[in-house]
Amino acid sequence: MQGTVDGFSYGVVTPVVAYLMACLGGALGLRCTTRSLLVAHSWRPGWLALGSAAIGSGIWTMHFVAMMGFTVEEAPIHYDKPLTFASLAVAIVMVGIGIFIVGYRGATGTALFTGGTITGLGVATMHYLGMAGMRLRGTLEYNTLTVAASVVIAMVAATAALWAAGQVRGILWSLGASLVMGLAVSGMHYMGMAGLSVHLHGSGAAPPGDSPAEILAPMMIGPLAFLLLAGVIVMFDPLMVMGGQADVRNPANGNRSRQSYPVPRSGDRHVPARRRTRPRSRTRPGSRSPQNW
Q1: Which parts pass through the membrane (predicted)?
Q2: What does the H/E/C string look like for 19-81?
Q3: Strands 256-261 and 244-249: what pairing?
Q4: For 127, left (φ over 0), alpha (ψ -120 to 50), or beta?
Q5: Closest CA to 198 of 266, 277, 138, 258
Q6: 142: helix, coil or strand?
């Protein structure tokens, strides 16, 4: 028996909120990635880890907000907690690998291709692992071409977002990249759901696991609280909006590396790079001729 699938049982509310969650996580994560390029080497892992957790939490929250609107008319849906939590861990780890590659290698072609591919695969893996945690009286069946298209969308858009984050061109640039990443995650999700069909096994006892209201709402409190905390950190960091950077050539290997400088405050005088080595002429009191050099 074929089940009647509805992915928009709450109308446009769940898609819009899901997209905003993906954009929020993407914006915070990409700004942290940008910030990591402006700090000393010892601080870079912390910013990259914060960015990875923000993006992973954002896409995970987006997925399950969208799944709040997913129903099968003939069968109740329950969720398995271990697999649901595992999908969050997979998202953070795989996104983190991609971000660390770009954070340490820069926005080069090879690094972007590798990091974007891993990040996109992490988004897709999170999605289908979360779907595997669904419990209902039936079997989920996917269209192969639709699944492949959803994975390609995730990889291409993740690569584009990482490239934009690596340009370090200000907050508006990263916000635009986050919109692209939110669109990628949402597009990948709904593309994959478009190729889903449910084959029911007939009547029987309710499947094991917790209902969506019992598991999804409480579980999303943690990632949402983390996104709020990450947002506060980003908001109160002065170099997230404006910060100095310069390309400095390393005399050891001749490579260029970014180095950060503190942001000048209002009222500070500009300090010249080199002082005069030749003293200025001075005039003694009562003398009309300048003092000899």
Answers
A1: 12-34, 46-71, 83-104, 111-130, 142-164, 171-195, 215-236
A2: HHHHHHHHHHHHHHHHHHCCCCHHHHHHHHHHHHHHHHHHHHHHHHHHHCCCEECCECCEECH
A3: antiparallel
A4: alpha
A5: 138
A6: strand
72 within 8 A of 136, measured Cβ to Cβ: yes
139: Cα within 13 Å, side-chain hemisphere: 5
* Tens digit of each residue's pLDDT (9 = 90 or more) over 158-189: 888 788 777 656 667 777 778 888 888 898 99
Considering only CA atoms, which of 63, 79, 70 is closest in space to residue 3? 70
Is 171 within 8 Å of 240 (Cβ atoms)? Answer: yes
Copy the structure tokens of residue 56. Answer: 């992973």
Q: What is the pLDDT of residues 99-118, one digit of tens each?
A: 899 888 877 888 899 999 99
Instruction: Select from 181, 121, 182 the least CA-distant residue to 155.
Output: 121
pTM: 0.73
| Cα–Cα distance measured from residue 168 to residue 225, given in angstroms and rounded to the nearest whole number | 27
Residue 249: its H or E element: strand 244-249
